[in-house]
């Protein structure tokens, strides 16, 4: 049970980073359908940065920069040009799927095999890690997990406890009204897209900087789409997204444990568990929750 809970937290973390990114974009009025591709880009460039520069921190920084550039592209095409956000997002996904596979094959062929990169190790939090069960599960993790805890609280505080957060949310609800009182809607949406790209990339970097020390083609495996589901299931609230991501992480940890103990089921069926749960969760909330009213709708000042 303890192992399963620890795995659940770790497997939920990359989802939560991406979900926070998706949430910020949607709260500003932009759908980020490119979370999957941005996570994949973050995973590869974090790995490459860590390998070539010899530090996981360097890899993390490179992933953030790539994510910000990706978010900037999303912002320009959707905010300035008014291009379909779904088309842009899917284009980003396809682009990074091809680019990361190509670059990784170049790296592998040059080195004649798989390359291991430095990763973050576990870090016990003094005192808190000694608490029975909870201490082991929550406070015997790597530094990126702790960073995720902090970001959830900071994001919630920003959105719901600051005047700027109120202005930010108004851009996703009624951009015309926000504009009429002097709020720069385009600036807010740009900020949301850039933050979204950075967080999605950090989520992807978690896979290569903590879980494994190398990159695998298409290793994100649908986590970006699960993160989008977590945003909806969490009702566009960071704490709700945290709960949804833990649920999906627990389901993923369960299927891994089932494979380890040798459950008498085809492994393909066991691996489907997190994705089946995602579909069921969406079916359960469709029509029952309402997101920001203006999300996905371009705004041009009259």
Strand proportion: under 5%
| Rough outline | globular
Mean pLDDT: 91
- Biggest sheet strand line-up: 1-2
> What ranges have pLDDT less than 50 throughout 5 or more consecutive residues?
none
The major β-sheet equals: 2 strands, antiparallel
Order of helices and strands: HHHHEHEHHHHHHHH
Question: Could you characterize what this model shows?
Answer:
This protein has 302 residues and is mostly helical. The chain has one domain. It has 13 helices and 2 strands; from the N terminus they run ααααβαβαααααααα. The protein has a two-stranded antiparallel sheet. The longest helix is centred in the first third of the chain and has 27 residues. The mean pLDDT is 91.
Topology:
Elements: H1 2-28, H2 35-53, H3 56-80, H4 85-111, E1 122-124, H5 134-139, E2 140-142, H6 143-161, H7 163-173, H8 175-180, H9 185-211, H10 223-233, H11 238-261, H12 267-271, H13 273-285
Antiparallel strand pairs: 1-2
Helix pairs in contact: 1-6, 1-9, 1-10, 1-11, 2-3, 2-4, 2-9, 2-10, 3-4, 3-9, 6-7, 10-11, 10-13, 11-13
